[in-house]
Design goal:
The structure is a homodimer of 351-residue chains. With 351 residues, chain A is mainly beta. The first copy, chain A, folds into two domains: 222 residues, Sulfite Oxidase, Chain A, domain 2 (Alpha-Beta Complex), CATH 3.90.420.10; 114 residues, Immunoglobulin-like (Sandwich). Chain A has a six-stranded mixed β-sheet, with no helix packed on it. A five-stranded mixed β-sheet of chain A has the order 2-1-10-5-6. In chain A, strands 3, 4, 7, 8 and 9 form a five-stranded antiparallel β-sheet that branches. The longest helix of chain A is centred in the first third of the chain and has 9 residues. Chains A and B meet through helix 1, strand 5 and strand 14 of A and helix 1, strand 5 and strand 14 of B.
Chain lengths: 351, 351
């Protein structure tokens, strides 16, 4: 990591938070441990007065209460979320924004109703191109006052996967996760999952709002328009073995057999393999458990024999498209999608 | 804030997290928004096999299951927690540890059974001096392998307030808040509230474990033995008004009447007054609501008229002992108990 973290980055790190990696041992991330990235402030939304407005290039506008949404088809689906900026603080030079190391991830059981059926009821007009999802959270970004808005192309919005979610882990959404309603788009980076969702607006053109035109693009330089960020690259993480030093987070492991474990996911295709490497040894296959669902991580384990000394343990995932985690992080101006191999340094010694 | 935040501080900030200040609008902090400071890793504790062992200078040792604890007298009490290191990152020079700004706070409804009755049942011997509470979390700190342990003097442990808590917000403790059992000591800084509690050990001498002898002391220099950290100094915080810039967290407020609001607490005595100041104006009294309970924060409000320009809004609390928040933070080697006046800079302009 290059240079010191700035006051602005610290302010963001104090508000937002990652998932401590030992929580990888849970299939579903316990409440309060799922990562959080909130662009502006958590808005206070009155659930009783709440309406989801559906408008724009539709045959008929809809205005749906929470009760209306709960009466529709109900889907429960485990989904792994990852922030597009995960790994940003490990890039060099370090893009300045929320300074994630590797913890910006979590998996929850989301409950809601498919976006597709709502759009079908509203009736998309033939000239519909993009579907904008607008949240109640407001602020300023890059000098532009705005509410948080992201769009999906019509084909993605109608794919059947995107969900209007009103529950997380079987309970109403917590305020910080979008109470009372949010979008959940399996497989995409987290910026897609608009929280505090109150409007769906169908456009006859490509959406050019701030979060598409300026943020969330892979830019090689400041004047590169770049390509949009969309689905999650494959990634694996491990539970750091042994015990930590409070301050340095250095890990201490007793000699002998150690079961390493972690989780792996990809937004492009199922994870087909996870490999583990100790020091300069070869990459060796980890044992894989079935995924929790088509859009959720799968657990892996690997039996390692710890010998005295210092070792760098590494893991990497490969998905069915052939995408594999790189040794070195891909760099871009805003620091998105750094899915480099996860490395954990451990000192093996008698306790 | 002096200098850049280090990699080690960032690692801590990525794991631990504060309460976003807009959550001050809630009487009880919603699940997942309460601050968290975890010294080592969150341990996995098997609730079915769990026992709380009570031993040392007692007439008879006890070994209590969770069911045993739940069958005892049940107390529900709202308690405000604050990390002793809250405000550390605003000190100059900045002590290096978890780099809290001001968000390391939260209030929850805790449910459990009084420590006193358990100690009375075990029967403290006449030579009992300190009562040690030991958690299941283990790690290394200052080069010393240890489990997390903190003690209370016998008189404090028997005061009736300390609780063996098995529920938070009416549900079993989340893993990160000490599942299945933790200590809750109303009025004391957070380090006292030992999580993953599994042993109570009564000593015939003052406890000299790491978290007493080396950590959590007010030291003026590295070789100053210092005085122990105990109860929370008075503090008030405000919900930052208006909307933020994502990156800088600068606040923008529309001109006109603005209702400021926040919370105030003290571990020494009830909060008697909160005052608010805008720019170079006088300190003016805020309106105070009753506290949620004797050990929980109270809400305050203040009606301010926003005029175009930049303003520094400040709030400070005074408790019944006469303690008041200082303009400038008190400095000590490890950065504890910085309860300086809370200041929020806002830019007032038409949206």
């Amino acid at each position: 990591m290059a240079g010191g973290i700035t006051q602005e980055e610290l302010q963001l790190a104090a508000r937002n938070h990652g998932m401590p990696l030992e929580a990888l041992r849970h299939d579903l991330t316990p409440r309060g441990l799922h990562y959080l990235l909130i662009h502006y402030d958590i808005p206070a939304v009155d659930a009783a007065a709440f309406r989801l407005e559906v408008r724009g290039r539709v045959g008929r506008e809809l205005s749906l209460s929470l009760a209306d949404l709960r009466e529709r088809e109900r889907v429960d689906v485990p989904v792994t979320f990852e922030c597009a900026g995960n790994g940003r603080a490990q890039l060099d030079p370090r893009p300045v924004s929320q300074p994630w190391l590797v913890e910006a991830v979590g998996t929850a059981m989301w409950t809601g109703t498919p976006v597709r059926a709502v759009l079908e009821e509203a009736g998309l007009l033939e000239d519909a191109v993009d579907v904008v999802f607008a949240g109640e959270d407001r602020g300023v970004e890059g000098g532009v006052p705005q509410r948080y808005e992201r769009a999906l192309p019509v084909a993605e919005a109608l794919s059947g996967e995107p969900l209007l979610a009103y529950a997380m882990g079987g309970e109403p959404l917590p305020p910080q996760h979008g109470f009372p309603l949010r979008l959940v788009v399996p497989g995409w980076y987290g910026m897609t999952n608009v929280k505090w969702l109150s409007e769906i607006r169908v456009l006859d053109r490509a959406f050019d709002g701030y979060q598409h035109a300026r943020a969330y693009r892979f830019m090689r330089s400041d004047d590169d328009p770049g390509a949009p960020v969309s689905r999650m690259e494959p990634r694996s993480l491990m539970v750091p073995p042994g015990v930590p030093d409070f301050m340095t987070r250095e890990r201490f492991v007793a000699p002998g057999p150690v079961r390493l474990e972690g989780r792996a996911w990809s937004g492009w295709a199922p994870v087909e393999a996870v490999e583990v490497r100790a020091g300069d040894g070869p990459w060796e296959p980890a044992a894989l458990e079935p995924p929790l669902g088509p859009a959720a991580w799968r657990r892996w384990t690997f039996d390692w024999t710890a010998t005295p000394g210092t070792h760098v343990l590494a893991c990497r995932a490969r998905d069915a498209t052939g995408r594999v985690q790189p040794d070195d992080p891909p760099w871009n101006v805003k620091g998105y999608a750094n899915n480099a191999v996860h490395r954990v340094t451990v000192t093996v010694r008698d306790a």
